[in-house]
Design a protein that fits this description.
The structure is a homodimer of 483-residue chains.
Chain A lengths: L14 H5 L7 H14 L10 E2 L14 H11 L12 H13 L15 H15 L8 E5 H13 L9 E7 L4 H8 L3 E6 L10 H11 L4 E8 L11 H14 L2 E5 L16 H8 L8 E6 L12 E7 L3 H12 L6 H11 L9 H27 L4 E2 L8 E2 L2 E2 L3 H9 L4 H13 L1 E2 L1 E2 L12 E4 L4 H21 L2
Parallel strand pairs in A: 1-12, 3-4, 3-5, 5-6, 6-7
Antiparallel strand pairs in A: 2-8, 7-8, 9-11, 10-14, 13-14
Chain lengths: 483, 483
């Protein structure tokens, strides 16, 4: 009865919230946390600790922060440290002074401009210009609280304010990082799902894109296409040709391109190279070079993995000038992204240069992380492909493997009985028996009748080897149990 | 023609974005920034610098950070500093260690749980329990990126997913901090505006609340009431009696209470005391004590003014347990609020204790800021009330004065001619002639035919005196020009 008096009940709750899902932090993670607590309280388990391979949380799995980033951050935080001789390298001090000069009142405790401190946006533009070989403008850089917040801000602009078949349609890959489906659900937009081609290294087939959009036209007004490159959860690095195809498709269909390029530093495979959508568009010439594009970047991935600082930005080009003003207005009520996250981003895009004292250490730390990731990407790919009933595309980039598992009919039935998807059933069993926490493929979307899971390649090499050993044993046990 | 090819034009842009406004960072601020640049480039103006009294940005106007906050922050940022003997007080080191222990991998660079680090939420709950004399539970504390982000998250839950008269109605004060109207516009909800009683120290009259909600029922489904206490932009501190009246009203009407209590440390007037909505509800007993309530707090205001760190939290009580789970799910896709902002909040709610080495300095710095604000609140109130044609309620709390100005008919006509509201016309003239940037009352809402502006009391005392002197001269000049 007490419940009847609540304003918010499951009946009155925003229905968009009810349908929204975000698998990366879903029920399996809750169970993993519960298991951790059981272990802490002395429960006996077939494993001694839980390995959270569900989320791309670099420092959580033991990666060390890049020294120069944290030195600059400490200095801007507590400028008294600038007075001490010898404790901090000169380039860290100079950078900190530059950032503090850009802050109102010389404090990172003041609000920045809503799109971020101009001095930092200039550094970002310089980084992009150098990366692509094409000019970039600080006025097109809009910083955000992680990339997610920037993505939401752009999708907000694209909504139609209409319901039913007038809804904004946003094309998203399947499988996809579930932020997109979550935001689309929350905003009552329409997800136009296109399947990545697993047989061809998770590439985007234009025929599939065309098929998906033509099916969707009855249900929505298509406005944009999301492409995640390097792929999450799929780990592919798109070829330049594939990017060109997508750009042509978007032009034909009148779509805004949302390029999620947060893993741009995470390229491992021989022959793979990162091309930004902007670079490819610019080099395709008109009419492609003046298409509207938002490219997203984050401080949370790459070699730095500074997730907790929530640094991110979007480069948004070719906007109608009046729309640009509305965009700036729309982000102003959020006041500004965290200034410490902005400072982290500044160091990422403008690292120490060869003549500066911190250069060597920075490069060494960066290369160490990336080299480890490169080895682990290969280790994981090879291991999964060595197991019967599992196939795994090469982890060319990003931080995840997304292997395909053939599940026995009996396992599929057993999953049905307990009301789980077959891959969730598999991942829960994996967690209970080995302590390895992964995310079921169904949380990202997958072709009907196929089953996957996402596992990060982040645990330290030795631990990862051990994890993969336990995984293999589990898999064989699971197969024999349900065969 | 090129414009025709854009996906996003003023015609296709989300209509909710178009109607959204956020006056605190509106056109007058753009003009102030332009003036600053003109001055920098040597332009001759009747003033030598622009005083941005438009926004509650404490450090921007010269307030110094609290040492202990920044020491703890520097230590968690760059834990190498923990090794140095003597550079940092022991209590700062201990606090930093406690926070790092709560972080995955011992790094503030890892993601926290979506509602924030448990250890910090426990400190927040302890702070609230001590403040109110009633228990508080860490599981009811949900940290956010500034208070704004937390407010948006709760309003999201309250939306109905319907259009027209099925829209969610959210009661907001007039005048109000325009975050609320901006979020309501963005989310296509319905603002139920109720007028604060300027004649009675900006109190909430229940008759006005009843009038507003009954008028609105034809247009929406009323779901919640927003109360800002201490008031922004109005500077009042609600009496306990007034809070009780509002709670009874909300109960009768079946409304969720959103209590914006970010200025809870900013109480200046003799006889004024801060009562939290939670405390009053709890002490009213059933059925009031089990009403749904969200109270918001920020690291950006109070005595610390750490706006740039974007720290904030909501205490959300008496939620239906299933709704609570949905709420937690709904914030999970944002991953987590900035961990450095969480750390700032930890120090605010759990400051050094009398036996600890940093206690004296912390208290001294805190009291200095608050004592200055107290004096400035009085200074501003007295000054405005000494000017003919201006009346100003006592600034009892928060950081703003919101004086009422009588404008001559000729000024009102002149404003019409240039397409401005009369108070925007006045504020622009003030800016051009004195360099003082304020926000026109129309940006917050005001009774028809009345004119106001919001000015912060943040500039340092001497500067504020000077500013107020220039203001007075301007006002008299303005009056004589249009009389």
């Amino acid at each position: 009865m007490a419940n009847d008096k609540k304003v918010l009940t499951m009946d009155s709750l925003n229905p968009c919230v009810k349908i929204m899902e975000y698998a990366v932090r879903g029920p399996i993670v809750d169970r993993a946390t519960a298991l951790e607590n059981e272990l802490k309280n002395g429960a006996s388990k077939p494993f001694t600790r839980v390995v959270k391979a569900n989320i791309g949380d670099c420092h959580a799995t033991g990666q060390k922060p890049i020294t120069f980033i944290r030195q600059v951050l400490a200095l801007v935080t507590y400028p008294e440290l600038l007075m001490k001789n010898g404790d901090f390298p000169e380039d860290a001090k100079n950078r900190a002074k530059k950032i503090l000069d850009a802050c109102k009142g010389g404090s990172v405790g003041s609000y920045s401009e809503s799109p971020g401190l101009l001095a930092i946006r200039e550094d970002i533009a310089a980084y992009i210009a150098k990366r692509d070989g094409h000019p970039s403008n600080a006025s097109d850089i809009i910083m955000s609280t992680g990339a997610s917040d920037g993505i939401k801000a752009i999708i907000t602009l694209l909504l139609t304010g209409k319901d039913g078949s007038g809804k904004a349609g946003i094309m998203i890959p399947v499988p996809q990082y579930p932020l997109y489906s979550a935001v689309i659900a929350e905003f009552n937009a329409y997800p136009i799902r296109y399947y990545l081609n697993e047989e061809n290294q998770w590439s985007l087939d234009v025929s599939e894109l065309k098929h998906a959009i033509s099916e969707a036209r009855a249900h929505c007004v298509p406005r944009a296409i999301v492409v995640i490159n390097p792929g999450n959860p799929t780990g592919q690095v798109l070829t330049r040709q594939n990017i060109e195809d997508v750009i042509r498709f978007a032009k034909e269909e009148g779509l805004f391109i949302l390029a999620d390029e947060v893993y741009q530093h995470n390229i491992y495979a021989k022959g793979s190279k990162f091309f930004s959508f902007k670079q490819v568009m610019k080099e395709m010439g008109e009419p492609y070079s003046s298409m509207e594009l938002a490219s997203f970047m984050s401080a949370s991935k790459g070699f730095m993995g500074e997730c907790g600082y929530r640094g991110g930005y979007a480069e948004v080009i070719n906007l109608d000038p009046q729309v640009k003003l509305q965009y700036m207005k729309s982000i102003s009520a959020k006041l500004c992204p965290p200034v410490s996250g902005q400072a982290v981003m500044d160091v990422i895009v403008n690292p120490p240069q060869p003549h500066e004292p911190s250069y060597k250490l920075f490069e060494k730390e960066k290369e160490f992380v990336l080299a480890q990731l490169r080895e682990k990407a290969k280790l994981v790919t090879d291991l999964f492909n060595s197991i019967e009933g599992i196939s795994c595309n090469e982890v060319q980039g990003a931080m995840y493997a997304f292997p395909c598992i053939k599940l026995p009919e009996k396992a599929i039935e057993a999953a049905k009985e307990v009301g789980q998807t077959p891959d969730a059933f598999y991942c829960f069993a994996l967690l209970e028996e080995t302590g390895i926490c992964t995310v079921p493929g169904s949380g990202f979307g997958e072709k009907e009748g196929t089953y996957h899971f996402r596992i990060t390649i982040l645990p330290p090499q030795e631990e990862l080897r051990e994890v993969l050993g336990h995984f293999k044993e589990f898999h064989l046990r699971f197969l024999s149990r349900y065969s």
